[in-house]
Each structure stands twice: as structure tokens, then as C-alpha cells.
Protein: DUF3450 domain-containing protein
Amino acid sequence: MNKILVALCVMLAGSAYAAEADKILDLQKNIHDKKSGFYSENEKWQEEKINLEQQYIHLKRAVAEKEAYLKSLKSSAAELKTEADRSRSRIAEGQKLKTGLETALSYLLEKLGSEISSGDEAAVQERSERIESLVAFVAAPDVLPAEKVRRVMEAYKVEADMSRYAEIRSMSVTVNGEQLNGYVLRAGGLAGFFTTPDGTTAAFFNPSSKQFEKLDSKYSEEVIIAGELVNRKRMPALVTLPVGRIEVQ
Structure:
């Protein structure tokens, strides 16, 4: 009987031990699975950490490059602003010079026009039209200043050449209110004279009144002789004509 009880106790103890062993095994397996999962997650985390560190280094380098580029842009912008300010200053100075030059050229043309208006009426209209054209040319905004200066200086040269040039032409003029046909002698920019073909009337151009006024008829022959000299129809000879007082303005 005792043996039977002992056997039963041993069987019961073995069963209990087996159950506990199964629990221990299950626990160990669970711990092993968790460790495996932990190690796997840790490896993934380490890889992700390395990847993130590489991305951080790349981004840090990119930020440094962008900051350097931005600094370069700011420097370039400052230089461009300085150059723009200088350009605006030069443009303003150039505009002042251009305006001053145009004012000076207009004044020169005005003076030239006043001299032209004091010549004989035979050439006044043609020369006045040339001056008016030049005035409009100087005022044109799309013409280079150098070209304006050249044209004005050219006009002065033309007038200077004309002042050394003598001519005689047939035309009709008004002398003391009377319309007469005859010859007009222009002695450069010095004086202008008129005579009728028959020599009965002689006249000179008065710059003050801008009209022809009568002279002694004895000058008619001198005008005709002067005209023949101008046209090279006579040998050189001395001609006496009253040029009057030369006014300096």
C-alpha cells in the first residue's frame, strides 16, 4: 500500500515537473523570440541610423554650399547696385552735357542766323532754310551729339567760305519802293550791290533796314566791272565800291 502511494506521489510530482518544464521551455522560447526580434530591430535601426547620418552629412554639405552661393549672390548684387548707381550718375552727367551742348549749338545757330539775315536778300531765304533745318536737326533726340557738332561746324565753314566768295546774278529787287530788274553783286559777307543794265540806277544792301538803297549812279559801272571780274571776263583791275562801316556784333 505504501508503495502504491509513493508511486502515485512520484507520478503526480513528475506530471507537475513536466508542466513546469513545458512552461520554462515556452518562456525560454518566448525570450529567445523576443531577443531575435530585438536584435533584428536593432540591426534595422543601426542601418537606418547610418543612413540618416549620411543624409545629414549630405544635407549639411548642401546647406554650406547654398550659403556660400547665397553669399556670392549678395556680393554680386551689391556690386551690381554700385555699378548701377555709377551708370545712373554717368547717364545724368551725360544728359547734362548733352543739354548744355545742344544749348550751345542752338546759340551758335542763332548767331549764325542773325549774320545770315544781314546779307543780301538774294541768298537769305536759301541760307535761312538751311539754318532752320539745322535747328531741327540739333533738337532731334535720336541724333548723336558728335554728329550735331559736325553739322553745325560744317554750316559755319560753309558761311565762312561764302564770305570769301563773290558772285553776280540777274534778278529783280526793290529799290526805294520801286521794283527794278538788273544785276546783284554779292561780295562775300561784306556787302551787296545792285545796278540796272543801263547803269542809270545803283544801290547797296543796307543790313540795318534789310533793303536796297540808292547809290550815286556812278557806281553802276563799278558794279558791272566787278561782275565781269568775278566772271573772269576782264583782266584784273581795281574797283571802288562803298562798303560802308563794318559793324562788329
